[in-house]
Structures are given as structure tokens and as C-alpha cells.
Amino acid sequence: YRRPQAKETLSEFNQTERKAILGSYTKVLFVRDPFHRLIATFLQGMGISPSFSSFVQEVLDSRKEHEAWKPLVSLCQPCLVHYDYVVMFGFLRQELGHLLRRAGLPAGSLLPELTDSQVQWTYRWLSEQMFSELSAQQKQRLSHFYRWDLAAFPFSTSFLSD
What we know:
With 162 residues, the protein is mainly alpha-helical. The chain has helices spanning 15-22, 34-43, 52-61, 72-76, 92-102, 107-110, 116-133, 136-145, 147-152, and strands at 28-31, 85-88. It is globular. Keywords: Carbohydrate metabolism, Glycoprotein, Golgi apparatus, Membrane, Signal-anchor, Transferase, Transmembrane, Transmembrane helix.
């Protein structure tokens, strides 16, 4: 007698099972511009590359997608999971306040001090600097690599959607 192997990922369940499992949860998805994710990954030293351009080339040439730069659509599967809320990085204070109020919690006392405008300005500046290091082919390949993220989420200010 062989015991059936336990299902480990959501995609292994059929639609009815997924609906039953997720039905009682409030599903929140936190999303971040894929180009900003690449910058953060590079700055955290997750690659061994000396420059951002060579790091991007590693990502593009890699046969194995690392979770740090894997497209969000393949990580969070928005076609399988119908999220109740999608929270954009850069608007955390505003959106988390809304979520807490919807949950009936006092938003003001529970929120950490978030400086979204400073974070947005810093990433805008970093994006300009890092994007200018890339070749036209790298820019095109990155836009293609993240095409489903750019289509699924409102990253209209992303350098990759230009």
C-alpha cells in the first residue's frame, strides 16, 4: 500500500478544492515594480556581478529563475487566487490604513511610520541611474521577461513599461 503524496502547492488542487481552501481567508497581495525588485536584489548582493548591467545579464541568461527576480505572476498566480486586495509598494501607508479600517481595527495606532514619498523618490532616482547602464537589448529583454507583470498590475511608471 502506498499512501498518496500530500499536495504542497495551490496549483495541485482542483478549482473546487482551491475555492474551499481560500474561501475563508482575506487574500492580500503585495506587489512591487519588477525593475525596483531587481535593483533591491542587486543592492542586497544576491548576485556576484560587479555592475548592475552584468547582474541583469546574469538574470536574463539564467536558466533558473530565482524568487528574488521571478515574475510576480508566476510567484503569486493571480489567475488561480482571486485576491481581495492588491497593495502597491510605495503606497503602503495609505493602502494598509484602508485595509485595517476595513478589518475594523484602529489604523492610526497600528501602522508603522512609513515614508512612502521618500521611498518613491529614491527608487525613481535609482531607476534612472540603473536603467541608463543597460543596453537597448537588455531593456527590451527585461520588458519581455516581465511582460505579464506589466500587463497584470498597474506599473505605469515603471521604466520597463516605457
